[in-house]
């Protein structure tokens, strides 16, 4: 039995800011953003979207009625939760009209949350092969205007369906994890924007990757030569490149070239979307599958990292039935329909926030199926426009 990712889908709002425009507005050389951090565009999330609506917009693309009836759990990885108590997953269950006889759990460990869900889903389906699990990574990355982290913002959601006989990526059993109490990135309950020690965060990220990759090789006996591609959590794409370069000397010249080519394929979409937090690794995986040239059976190594800190290295094999054409078409449509906003417009959208009292939001500018309509009696009001 092969358990793994059977379906995968992505959603982000259709508004974005061009980082060349932002660099000029901030009186910075654009290459600092385009080359220095490896980003060219950044999703701008309107107030009518949150972690729940973005997850619903992503998940609705992949669930059939058969999938719905087979679901055993919804595991929702996010660090952008909408309630200190109530799970984002139960909101999602309601919006998608999923069966009531399923577990709905929200998972949090910075950007690692979706990977925790994926690993739990794999174990659950292995024990219950007739069941499927919906795994979500949905977040809004916020650091503030005119801050060092401004160009590593973004937002969006990735939804994955985990099942037996997976048609995209069969997850292998061996994985290695590492955790450590580190203050490289955090967001106190009273803050809307994250706090980050950028230099420390980069160093810990690379240290965690090299540590778990080394432990993985000791555990399995495999080496870098056994991988056709390595995919990374990409809060900004240059970070993944730095991590890859840390282990490239372990490979021969031809393998180094192929791994670098695969990495370039894996960051095409992340460069244009920005930081997804929990979804970043899986957007990178989608980018690799759509833009790379990997044959069936290719072994892909995946590095997941969540500040604070948790890291995991695991692997999967590309299944023979996977066809990248649908993935390519979805992203071509997404990028083709996006709307570029000016820097002043981006700043206005960024500064919009839900008040602490009842409000009705104007959703006319939001083209998504699922939107946040407002707040009534301290309760978020969501809308599925297909039922309006």
UniProtKB/TrEMBL annotation:
Gene3D superfamilies given for it? 3.40.47.10
Keyword annotations for this protein?
A: Transferase
Report the Pfam families cross-referenced here. HMG_CoA_synt_C, HMG_CoA_synt_N
Q: Which residues bind (3S)-3-hydroxy-3-methylglutaryl-CoA?
A: 29, 143, 242, 275
Residues of the Hydroxymethylglutaryl-coenzyme A synthase N-terminal domain: 2-166
What SUPFAM superfamilies does this protein map onto?
Answer: Thiolase-like (SSF53901)
Gene Ontology BP annotations: acetyl-CoA metabolic process
Q: Identify the residues that the record assigns to the Hydroxymethylglutaryl-coenzyme A synthase C-terminal domain, covering every copy.
A: 256-325
The molecular function terms of the Gene Ontology recorded here are: hydroxymethylglutaryl-CoA synthase activity
Does the record bear Secreted in its keywords? no
Q: Where is the active site?
A: 79, 111, 233
Q: Identify the InterPro entries for this entry.
A: HMG_CoA_synt_C_dom, HMG_CoA_synth_N, HMG_CoA_synthase_prok, Thiolase-like
Show the PANTHER family listed in the entry: 3-HYDROXY-3-METHYLGLUTARYL COENZYME A SYNTHASE (PTHR43323), HYDROXYMETHYLGLUTARYL-COA SYNTHASE (PTHR43323:SF2)
What family does this chain come from, according to its entry?
Belongs to the thiolase-like superfamily. HMG-CoA synthase family.
Instruction: Please report the name of this protein according to its UniProt entry.
Output: Hydroxymethylglutaryl-CoA synthase
Organism whose genome encodes this protein: Secundilactobacillus kimchicus JCM 15530
